[in-house]
């Protein structure tokens, strides 16, 4: 095994051992590392830069809808959390409690937030007296803690980063409009920035958020096993939390009413989605719009006498590209060019520029695309025009490939046996009619490990027979196994 290819060849096979491949890519690409606390990860600078780029694009979109950022405490008094029984029941297995502070037992245990409705809603109750105080549109970027039994980097963790939006409205119609609007924000963000196509829809009653009136979701298909990943959710909470936490106001007619709420969140599991949707046997393929480094420049020389000539050209290339791309020059002298090529392929950098003495003589670079592996000479004078065009082309190509994967592996099924076989074979999304019965839904989950990922907004407009019981149905759902 050569030094140049060693760490890449050690990756597990993408097709045969996708789960191990994923774990190895997260570690070898320096996205995250194990921490001393089971179920948590240290997000390394390269991984955090990826999250920061995602965060910036999503934050911009959220604010464009009129939402403001704020921050609420990490700790929630247990009695406050317990006021909403259905909510507590939904999160009970995942809740962490603080029972001691310093050298004293706490008079009341504190819940470490698994989500923040129970600390935010009481504040809204304090702030709202009149319909003129509504709507309240607030988002926070924070971490939450859920005691996961089977942690997995970025996908499921004891502590994870996310944003959670919480709004209060004077009417159910306003709350519904807001919950659907934020789902569309998520869809646009994931498809445009991450190049991941999704299926938007509504969760079934058994899969909706604890205490919600309705939960909406965007579901994405991962590579490898073709399992589903819930990429973002938006909840219309109705006036349920308003009643529980006394968010009461005087309306325009002088009547006292309870506010209607929404909550919506998207976490750093979209980093995991990006890895699994676009990766290949060489490692990551990052969408240019969020890639921490869009262009890596690798200077090449054999003799010290060539170094100054190459470095001067590299400086000119870097200066020309900095206004139009995120550029990094790899000047490490303890690694060969071949090693660097393979490392940056593993890390998914969209474009690599190789510059050696012969290239300098020709006033060109050798440009290599991560998505196709295609190499081409490009004149240095043309780079500032060519590079942005290629980055846009790569972004579009990644989305097209992911859309093809989703379409090719989403299949209508009409028999229960076919559904069972597809779930066993990890064959992707199975679209089938469902009667709405929780018993039929539970049977599928128990016997196939597949769940109803969503009731897609895109419906055929016809009726059919439930895939389980044969009863009449007017809605198709997506069945799939999920991370």
Notes on the protein architecture:
The structure is a single chain. With 483 residues, the chain is of the alpha+beta class. It has 3 domains: 6-278, BirA Bifunctional Protein, domain 2; 295-393, Anticodon-binding domain (Rossmann fold); 410-480, Translation Initiation Factor IF3. It contains 15 helices and 25 strands. The chain has helices spanning 6-9, 18-28, 45-64, 78-81, 85-91, 117-127, 172-193, 240-244, 269-278, 304-321, 337-346, 357-361, 383-408, 416-424, 438-448; strands spanning 32-34, 41-43, 68-69, 75-77, 96-101, 104-112, 136-145, 159-169, 199-202, 214-221, 228-238, 248-250, 256-258, 260-267, 295-299, 327-329, 351-355, 364-369, 375-379, 410-412, 429-433, 451-456, 464-465, 472-473, 476-480. Strands 3-7-8-14-11-10-9-22-25-21-20 form an 11-stranded mixed β-sheet, with helices on both faces. The protein has a 5-stranded mixed β-sheet with strand order 16-15-17-18-19, sandwiched between helices. The protein has a 3-stranded antiparallel β-sheet with strand order 4-6-5. Helix 14 (416-424) links the parallel strand 20 (410-412) and strand 21 (429-433). Helix 3 crosses helix 7. The longest helix has 26 residues, at 383-408. The protein is globular, with a radius of gyration of 25 Å. The model has no long low-confidence stretch (mean pLDDT 96).
Fold topology:
Layout: H1 6-9, H2 18-28, E1 32-34, E2 41-43, H3 45-64, E3 68-69, E4 75-77, H4 78-81, H5 85-91, E5 96-101, E6 104-112, H6 117-127, E7 136-145, E8 159-169, H7 172-193, E9 199-202, E10 214-221, E11 228-238, H8 240-244, E12 248-250, E13 256-258, E14 260-267, H9 269-278, E15 295-299, H10 304-321, E16 327-329, H11 337-346, E17 351-355, H12 357-361, E18 364-369, E19 375-379, H13 383-408, E20 410-412, H14 416-424, E21 429-433, H15 438-448, E22 451-456, E23 464-465, E24 472-473, E25 476-480
Parallel strand pairs: 3-7, 15-16, 15-17, 20-21
Antiparallel strand pairs: 1-2, 4-6, 5-6, 7-8, 8-14, 9-10, 9-22, 10-11, 11-14, 12-13, 17-18, 18-19, 21-25, 22-25, 23-24
Helix pairs in contact: 3-7
């Amino acid at each position: 095994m050569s030094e140049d290819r060693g760490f890449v060849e050690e990756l597990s096979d993408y097709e045969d051992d996708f789960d191990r491949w994923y774990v190895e890519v997260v570690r070898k690409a320096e996205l995250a590392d194990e921490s001393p606390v089971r179920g948590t990860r240290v997000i390394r600078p390269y991984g955090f830069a990826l999250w920061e780029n995602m965060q910036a694009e999503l934050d911009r979109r959220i604010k464009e809808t009129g939402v403001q950022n704020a921050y609420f405490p990490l700790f929630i008094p247990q009695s406050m959390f317990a006021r909403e029984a259905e909510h507590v029941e939904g999160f009970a297995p995942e809740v962490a409690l603080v029972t001691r502070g310093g050298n004293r037992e706490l008079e009341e245990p504190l819940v470490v937030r698994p989500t923040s409705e129970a600390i935010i809603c009481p504040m809204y109750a304090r702030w709202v007296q009149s319909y003129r105080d509504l709507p309240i549109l607030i988002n926070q970027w924070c971490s939450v803690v859920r005691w996961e039994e089977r942690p997995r980097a970025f996908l499921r963790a004891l502590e994870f980063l996310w944003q959670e939006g919480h709004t209060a409205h004077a009417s159910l119609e306003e709350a519904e409009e807001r919950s659907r609007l934020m789902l569309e924000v998520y869809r646009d963000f994931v498809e445009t920035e991450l190049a991941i196509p999704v299926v938007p829809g509504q969760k079934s009653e058994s899969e909706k958020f604890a205490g919600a009136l309705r939960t909406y979701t965007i579901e994405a298909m991962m590579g490898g096993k073709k399992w589903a990943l819930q990429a973002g959710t938006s909840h219309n909470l109705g006036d349920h939390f308003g009643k529980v936490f006394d968010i009461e106001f005087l309306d325009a007619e002088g009547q006292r009413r309870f506010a209607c709420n929404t909550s919506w969140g998207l976490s750093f599991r979209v980093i995991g989605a990006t890895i699994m949707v676009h990766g290949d046997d060489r490692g990551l393929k990052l969408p240019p719009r969020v890639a921490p480094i869009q262009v890596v420049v690798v200077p090449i020389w054999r003799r010290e006498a060539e170094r100054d000539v190459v470095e001067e050209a590299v400086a000119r290339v870097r200066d020309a590209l900095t206004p139009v791309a995120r550029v990094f020059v790899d000047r490490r002298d303890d690694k060969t060019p071949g090693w660097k090529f393979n490392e940056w392929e593993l890390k998914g950098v969209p474009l690599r520029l190789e510059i050696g003495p012969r290239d300098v003589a020709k006033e060109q670079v050798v440009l290599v695309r991560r998505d196709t592996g295609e190499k081409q000479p490009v004149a240095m004078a043309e780079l500032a025009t060519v590079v942005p065009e290629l980055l846009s082309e790569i972004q579009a190509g990644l989305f097209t490939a992911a859309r093809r994967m989703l379409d090719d592996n989403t299949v209508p099924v009409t028999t229960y046996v076919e559904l069972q076989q597809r779930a066993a074979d990890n064959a992707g999304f199975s679209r089938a009619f469902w009667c709405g019965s929780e018993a039929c839904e539970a049977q599928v989950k128990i016997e196939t490990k597949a769940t109803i990922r969503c009731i897609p907004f895109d419906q055929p407009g016809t009726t059919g027979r439930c895939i389980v019981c044969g009863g009449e149905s007017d809605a198709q759902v997506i069945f799939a196994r999920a991370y």
